[in-house]
Amino acid sequence: MNLLSNTLVFVLLLAAAGVQAKLPAKKVLTLSAAKQVALAAEAEAQRRGATVVIAVVDDGGHLLLLERLDDTQVASSEVAIGKARTAAIFRRPKVFEDRIREGRVAALALPGATPLQGGLPILYEDQVIGAIGVSGNTPQEDEEIARAGLSGLDAAAKGSSGSPATYIPAVQLQAAFAKGEFLLRTEAYKVEAGRRTAPGVAEVHLGETDVFYVQEGSATFVTGGTVVDAKTISPGEIRGPSIEGGESRRIGKGDVLVVPSGTPHWFKEISGPFLYFMVKPAVGGVR
Known about the structure:
four-stranded antiparallel beta sheet
């Protein structure tokens, strides 16, 4: 009897060990990675001059991070959280809004769902580890800003892999130039494949130095002087419609221009598609 009991115990232990060995490994979204995702989305929103709320949740839809950019309506906070939560727990983007538009209003009754465009799952190694939700502008723009935020996960993954180098194939670079997109955004620097087809607003970056390398086209670029009707749109970021005074120069293919932190600058005139490769290192601890 004692031998039988010991045998049964041994068999049960082996079975338990087998079950334990088959448990899948689960990836999680850390707070550090969530910050990188939010940072990338915030940079895209600022590039567009958009006022939005950015929410990042874990795979269970629980809030990890919430950012409300200056002058964004308060109501967008709950909407952004709802969009992110919906994308996380249903493991998909705006499919519910599409179904409602097609006439399936029953989707409005789904428990815990905010069926609005602007929420995207965050994937890592084909697993949903969280989601990002953006609210405050048009549905399409909210989603585009959220999608830009997903690039922040790549930066976080590279930072934790022990390989700090980032390789950007020529095909990816040319695709970015076609739209004008950031290639990489971290706390220390940003890299952009810029594209302009029209003059911009005057800007002052208090926490970044802009290093331009012109790829194609030409522009009249003004540096220095005083920004007209200057307004602070976010910490360290000042904008206005134009510049009074300053130094005006014509820049074109192959030219390099370095604009130190705190220097007003303005694309006054643009000829043709103006493409430029830009690196924005952070300085002075202000972003």
